[in-house]
Design goal:
8 helices, binds zinc ion, 6-stranded mixed sheet, Beta-carbonic Anhydrase, Chain A, alpha/beta
Length: 190
C-alpha cells in the first residue's frame, strides 16, 4: 500500500467535505443501523449500502462471528452491540456474511492450525448441518446461526419483542456484487 497516497486521499476527502457536515458529525452520532460483517478486505460497506458518514454503526469480526452473550467473559463484540442497542438506540441490525469467506471455510474444512487465536475464536462455533454442500449455503447457514446468537442477547430479544428493533441477515456475493436477504426458508435477492 502506498501510504503517501493514502494520506493524500484522506486530506482531499476532508477538504471536500463542507464545514456544516463536519460540524454536524462532530456534534454526535445518531446512526439508525448497526452493520455487522466480516473483516474481509473485499467488503466495502459504504459501497454496498451507500451509507454516508454517521449513518452506519459498524462491527467487523473474523467471519462476522457474534460471540454468545456472557458477562463472565465480556468481549469487544458484546460491548459494541450493547452500545449500539442500549446507548445509540439503533432500530435495525444487519448481519452480513459473504461468499468465499475464509472463516466459514475454516469452520468447515480447517486449515488454520498455524493460527491459534483464530482457532480459539472459531472453535466454539460448531457448523450447522447443511444439506447443500455448496460453500454459499454454508455461508448463508452461518449467517442464520449468528442471527440466533444475536437474538439470544437479552436486550436484543427484549427490543425485538417490543417492536423497537429489527434484525436482518444479509449475504453478499463477492463475485457478482449481489446482496440477498434472509427470509424464512431462503436468502432472496434484495
Ligand atoms: Zn469473511
Amino acid at each position: 500500500m502506498d501510504f503517501h497516497r493514502f494520506v493524500q486521499h484522506a486530506r482531499e476527502h476532508a477538504g471536500s467535505r463542507s464545514r456544516a457536515v463536519g460540524k454536524k458529525l462532530a456534534a454526535g452520532q445518531q446512526p439508525t443501523t448497526m452493520f455487522i460483517t466480516c473483516a474481509d478486505s473485499r467488503i466495502v460497506t459504504a459501497a454496498i449500502t451507500g451509507a454516508e458518514p454517521g449513518s452506519l454503526f459498524e462491527l467487523r469480526t473474523a467471519g462476522n462471528v457474534i460471540p454468545p452473550y456472557t458477562l463472565t467473559v465480556p468481549s469487544s463484540e458484546m460491548a459494541t452491540i450493547e452500545f449500539a442497542v442500549l446507548q445509540l438506540g439503533v432500530s435495525e441490525i444487519v448481519v452480513c456474511g459473504h461468499s468465499h469467506c475464509g472463516a466459514v471455510g475454516a469452520l468447515h474444512g480447517g486449515g488454520i492450525d498455524h493460527l491459534p487465536a483464530m482457532r480459539g475464536w472459531l472453535r466454539p462455533r460448531a457448523p450447522r448441518e447443511v444439506s447443500d454442500p455448496a460453500m454459499r449455503s454454508e455461508g448463508q447457514a452461518h449467517v442464520r446461526a449468528q442471527l440466533d446468537v444475536l437474538l439470544a442477547y437479552p436486550f436484543v430479544a427484549e427490543k425485538v419483542a417490543a417492536g423497537a428493533l429489527r434484525v436482518h441477515g444479509w449475504f453478499y456475493d463477492i463475485e457478482t456484487g449481489e446482496v440477498s436477504a434472509c427470509a424464512e426458508h431462503a436468502f432472496l435477492p434484495l
